[in-house]
């Protein structure tokens, strides 16, 4: 570890993938270099993804092709975790109806479960994960099976997936179809914000002080908070500055940065909230349920300052700008 920067305070960095390391299949600028820098200093690295459409070996191959050397053992997916959970809960060979991609099907088969195609096959469980080819027919079969008593398991409930074109429907949107049809929640959600992926990564590496890095407050950061781990929110994916300002306590990160370069700056320059009312050329003043941002500088510093007042009761809608730079930043955040 290297003293003096944020990453240096941790013996394992657990990365989310979509929106942090890559978008769909292209690396985010600076991500391969940042991870290579961690490897160079001997910091352990792991990857924990809610995306159930790829197996660990496939993800490792994708990362390696992007210039990020990765081993399958370093990659934990919600598909693999779901297969492990079901293998523990169901008898060997139990029939399972899968709503999702081939990767999820392969994980369940490898875990010793039998895949079936319809509710008429009396599945013991319905397993739902993201798959770009999921359509009405399989959703209808899943609905019938759950109504008949099958255990309903979701690999994750991410409403969206990040992409270069903007957020796309994620598994949570597909889960919402069944939720509407069945008027109930899944029996079990395996992936983040449940802490299992993070705690498993720490156990596998023997880490005593892990750091979670993610782009989603509702999965990555909430999962880290639930697991009792420090976290870094990067603003390269789904959650926005406005989301951070409105975050409830269970979804508040330890640090925030524009991208993964924040790992190599002083921890104090990423800690959130930033108290004291001023820093980096910005000033925040509060008057009851309203706050004013003045000055200019790095927008992330302004965000950290504003979190101090919005997390203390000022609604994000009550924040206004007193300078041109402040108004421009707030407008860019949709405030």
TrEMBL record:
One Gene Ontology term, aspect cellular component: cytoplasm
Residues annotated as domain GCN5-related N-acetyltransferase-like: 280-335
Alphabetized Pfam families for the sequence: GNAT_like, Hydrolase_6, Hydrolase_like
SUPFAM superfamilies hit by this protein: HAD-like
GO molecular function: phosphatase activity
Keywords: Hydrolase
Protein name: HAD superfamily hydrolase (TIGR01450 family)
Organism expressing this protein natively: Paractinoplanes abujensis
